[in-house]
Amino acid sequence: MRDLFRVRRMWRPPGELKRRYDVVIVGGGSHGLATAYYLVRNHGVKSVAVLEQSYIGSGAAGRNTTIIRSNYRTPEGAAFYQRSVELYEGLGADLDFNLLFSQQGHLTLAHSERALVTMTERAEVNQLLGIDSRLIGNAEISKLCPELDLSDRPTWPVLGALYHPPGGIIRHDAVVWGLARGADRGGVEIHPYTKVTGIDQHAGRVTGVRTTRGDIECDTVVSATAGWSTLVCDLAGVRLPITTHILQACVTEPVKPFLDVVIVSSQMHVYISQTDRGEFLIGAEIEPYTTYRGTGTFPFLEASAAHVLELFPQLERARVLRSWTGLCDLSPDYSPILGKTGVEGFHVSAGWGTYGFKAAPVVGETMAQLVATGRTPDLIAPFELERFHTDTLVSELAAAAVSH
C-alpha cells in the first residue's frame, strides 16, 4: 500500500552543499537550468551546483508570457533567436517531457504607414537569414484570425501585419521542470532556498561563492538571475549598464478557444494569446519606473483591457482571473549581455528585459560551450559586455516596441 502513495519527485531533494564544484550557477530559472543541462548533455561537465534563493522557477521563468519567436530586427538578434526556436522545437523530445509547445503563428499588427515600413525592413532581414517572416495584408489577417476587428471602428485601425508562422507559445513551468529534471538526471545538484551573499576572487579570478548555507569553492560562476543581475554582479565587482523594471500581465477566466495565433500591437503596447487552458493572456510594456517591488497596478489593467477590446470587442464580458508582475533587467540597446566579464571565470546572462524566456535553450547551449571550452561562441560574441566600451551596440528597439 505504501508504494501506491509514494511521492514521485521530478528531481532529487537537495542535500548538503559540497565544499567544491567545478561550476556554480546562480539562478534556478530557465537560463540557469538550461546552462546546467547542456553542460552535462553536450560537454559531460557534472560537477555543477544550481543555487536559487527561492523555489525553482520562482523568478522570470515563472512570471513571463510564454511567447516564442525569432523575427528580430538586427542580424545578430534574429540569428540568435532563430537558433533558440530550433532548439525549442526539439527540446521536448530531448528532455522526454511534454512542454506543450504550440507553433501557432505570431502577428505583429501595423496601425500606420511608418509601422508598415518598419515591418517590411524586419521581414527582409529575417528572410535573408532564412527566417519565415513576411508582411501580409488584412485579407490574409482575416483568414488567420477572423475574430480580430479589422474595421475602421478602432482608434487605430489595422493596416497590415508582420506574420511569423514559427512563432507560438509554450508552457513556461514545463520548460523549467523539464530542464531541472534533465539536469538532475545528468548529475547536477539543484539547491533551492540558497542565497548567494558573496563571490570570492583572487588575482582577478573567481575562487568561490558564499551562501546562506555555507561557502563553496569553484572555478567558474555563471550569473543567470534576470532582474537581480546587477545585485549579483555587484558581489563580484562587475558593473552592468542595466536598470530593473517591472512587467505586468494578467489572464482572463477560461473561454472556449477561438484565438490560435499570437496577436501583438506595438502602437497600443499590448499583446494577447490564448493559453492551453482557454485563458486569454494579456501583457503590455514594462513600467517606466525602476523598482524591485512586485505590486500590480490598476492603470495597467484598465489600459490593457481597453486596448484588447479595441481588437477583440467580443471579450467585453470576460472577467480578469489573476494578474502578476515580474522583474526585468533592461540594457541600453535592448539586447542581452552574455558571456565573459572583467573577472576571469565569472560569466553573465543578463540584460534580457522581457525577452529572456524565449532564449533559454540557446543561452544554455552557448553558455555551456563557453564554460566548457573557454571560447565565446560566435552567436553570443556580439552581446559581450565589452560592446558598451567599444561602442558596438546591437539595438533591438525596433523589434522590441512591446514586451513580448
CATH architectural name of the largest domain: 3-Layer(bba) Sandwich
Helix content: 25-40%
Number of helices: 9
Shape: globular
The H-and-E topology, N to C, reads as EHEEHEHEHEEHEEEEEHEEEEHEEEHH
Strand content: 15-25%
Number of strands: 19
How far is it from the N-terminal to the C-terminal residue, by CA?
48 Å
Structure explained in plain terms:
The chain has helices at 30-43, 75-95, 113-128, 138-144, 172-185, 229-235, 298-311, 360-373, 387-390, and strands at 23-26, 48-51, 67-68, 106-110, 134-136, 160-164, 168-169, 189-191, 196-202, 205-211, 214-217, 220-223, 243-252, 262-265, 270-274, 280-284, 320-330, 337-340, 346-350. The protein is of the alpha/beta class. It folds into 2 domains: 14-64 and 173-242 and 333-399, FAD/NAD(P)-binding domain, CATH 3.50.50.60; 104-167 and 243-330, D-Amino Acid Oxidase, Chain A, domain 2, CATH 3.30.9.10. It has an 8-stranded mixed β-sheet with strand order 5-6-4-14-15-16-13-17. A 6-stranded mixed β-sheet has the order 8-2-1-12-19-18, with helices on both faces. Helix 1 (30-43) crosses helix 8 (360-373) and helix 2 crosses helix 8. The radius of gyration is 21 Å and the shape is globular. The mean pLDDT is 94.
